[in-house]
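Figure caption, in words: inputs first, then the predicted bound structure.
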Amino acid sequence: MNIVLCDSPEQAIRFAADTICRQVAARPDGVHGFATGGTMDQLYQALVPLQRQYALDWSGVRSFNLDEYVGLDADHPMSYRYFMRHNVFGPLGMQDARTHLPRGDARDLEQECRDYENAIAAAGGIDLQLLGIGKNGHIGFNEPSSSLGSRTRIARLSQDTLAANQRFFPPGAFQPQWAITMGIRTILESRQIVLLALGEQKASAVAAMAEGPLSAMCPASALQMHPATTVVLDPEAAQLLRLKDYYRSAYSPGVPSP
Ligand code: F6R
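Bound structure (fructose -6-phosphate present):
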């Protein structure tokens, strides 16, 4: 893992946004893997104005999101499709037909998972996958105990995740308990991965991911097996790492400097 220690959340967000913009500039017909959640929301808010400075054309970019809630249709305001369409795809000028999220309201959810895997393969795989990390070490909705060899599937959300995501749902509203998520193996097949983590609530998951054992109890630790993962951290998310001096000295160029 290339671990990039930034001086502030703003710098970490800018670093991740720059990495995405450079990728689109280099490959305007590339395949992007998107994520959602509070961290990604901050990243997308920075990405939209930044990509104008790069003068990027997103009309040829294809994308696959990591996950979608089961039981919400694409027009539901709490669905990830709705969020992405309004906050990312539209503002970036992406073509709706080139964007993909699992359909959480599919009649045959198992078939939907197989179709999603096939669609990623048919697109030639994912060039750059963006990730956040859960407080419990999840990536996508691969909760602790998920198989490190898993593929796109229906997954039950853990109590930790349900509690963390409750803030996105109005009181009394239906909150989905299940999601369709890319599997860990699906994620590991991406050619390049950028994981962004901000804040002290992510510090123990980040330490377990980078410096703990490879274990299904911390699904993000599977990234230790990936040859091209960059982990971008603010000081609070990095605070429990033991090898900070090493990461500073080993920072590898080729990605924008923080
Ligand atoms: C959502 C997703 C999740 C989030 C993670 C962190 O698509 O993939 O793994 O990235 O739950 O979410 P925040 O940033 O809200 O803490």
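The chain has a mean pLDDT of 95.
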